[in-house]
Structure formats: structure tokens, C-alpha cells
Amino acid sequence: MCKGILYYIHGGGFFGGSPDVVEEAVKMFVAKSGLCAVSPDYRLAPENPYPIGHEDCYRVLQWIGENAASFGGDPDHIFVAGDSAGGNLTQYCTTRDREDGGNLVKGQLLLYPTLNMAGVKDELFHPSMDQFEMTPSQKRGLSKMIGMFGGMTAGLEPILGTADVQNDYLNPYTRDPANHPPTFLPVGAHDFLKLETLGYGVKLHRAGVETQMVLYKGFGHAYIDNTGVYPQCEDCLDEMAAFVLAHCEA
């Protein structure tokens, strides 16, 4: 039996993407950690409006718990991970797991996750270009990309088929984070989701949740898709493997 199971949920704004995009990253994680991995497809919006995709992902988590032994996995060591919109889906799985009393999730790994879709401002989230470090030569190109904070996740209501993006599941940034499992939060320094990612990490820490944050300088959004291209992608996978293996022993 392997040491545990990584359940990885791909990103894509809830309307795109596939497991193929993150296949190299998941394979490299397995090679580094020795864990099993499950990386499924799920139904995408707008053809399948919210909460269909979210419920698909949660049902996969339940299936893993029920069937882990059949593929050599350890149901007591399930780690849920996802990037961007997949990070939102990951948090949904963890939250539902806690609400339903399943307690299947040993830890969660939220890679530059979509957490504050409603753009709710507070002491930790007040977007400004001043909060991003960049050289003068980078400023022109990066300002357009970084300036999308809120822009790439706001306006998803028509795609998701709901007018309520402020609910606790789609906007976990505003939910009480107490009782979450240990959480790993990596994000790029030039990612438009950086501010909500780091703010959420502070909220988890304040709530007593074991939290590890990593900020990768020079990276923008969706870097895990480029595993095998950028060396820092492998650095992130090393950190992910170390986080998971440490909690396999706990």
C-alpha cells in the first residue's frame, strides 16, 4: 500500500481545462512522493451550471474514500489539491467533507486558488498595484496582467449560472476557516490572485490552521501547467511532496 493519495483537481475558470494540462505535474509529484494520484475530469460550465462541477468533484472525493484500497491507496491519508479554479473546487471538497463528517481530507494544497470571487475587501485584501514588486522593464507588460485581480474571476456569474458568487462555497475567502486541515498555499509574485491567496493564508493561520505559504518570485498565474519548462515548477512540486509526506507521518 502506498503512503497516501493525491486527489488533484485541474483549473480552467470552471469552464475550461482538463487533466491533460496538469498531467506532467501530477506524474512528477507521484515520482517524487511515491503516492497514488487521482486526477479526474468534471463537468464544466456553462453547459453544466453551478453546483454541478463542484458536486462532481466532491463525489470523486467520496469515491476515493470508498475505493482507495482497490488501487493500493490509504484512505486515512487523502490529500486534495487543485490550481486556480481547481483550488476553489478543492476547498469546496474539504469544506463539504468537514460539514458531512467524512473527515477524509488529511491536508489540502491550494495552488494560486480562486478564493474571493466576489472581490470582498477587508484588512487583508485591498488590491493595489503597489503591492506587487516589479522592475521598470516589467511594469508595462505585467501591469495589464496583474491589474486583472478580480477581473478574471469577477463576472463569472453568467458562466456559472448563478447570481450568488458571495456564497460560502464559491467565495471561501469570507467563510470562517476554522477546522480546516493543514493547508499548503503557493502562489506567484506576479499572479493576479496573489493578494487573496496570501490574505486567506493569514486567515487560516489566525484560525489555528497549520498553514504553509510559498511565494515564487517571477511567476504569474497557472505556472504548474508548465512543469518541465520552468525549474520553479519542479521546486513547487518538491515543496508539495515534502508537505504531503510530512503529514503522512503525522
List the helices and strands and how they pair.
Layout: E1 5-9, H1 23-33, E2 36-38, H2 52-67, E3 78-83, H3 85-99, E4 105-111, H4 136-146, H5 157-160, E5 183-188, H6 194-206, E6 211-216, H7 231-248
Parallel strand pairs: 1-2, 1-3, 3-4, 4-5, 5-6
Would you write up a description of this structure?
The chain is α/β, with parallel strands linked by helices. It has a single domain, classed as Alpha/Beta hydrolase fold, catalytic domain (Rossmann fold, 3-Layer(aba) Sandwich). The protein is built from seven helices and six strands. The chain has helices spanning 23-33, 52-67, 85-99, 136-146, 157-160, 194-206, 231-248, and strands at residues 5-9, 36-38, 78-83, 105-111, 183-188, 211-216. It has a six-stranded parallel β-sheet with strand order 2-1-3-4-5-6, sandwiched between helices. Helix 2 (52-67) crosses helix 3. The chain is globular. The two termini are 17 Å apart. 44% of the residues are buried. The model has no long low-confidence stretch (mean pLDDT 91).
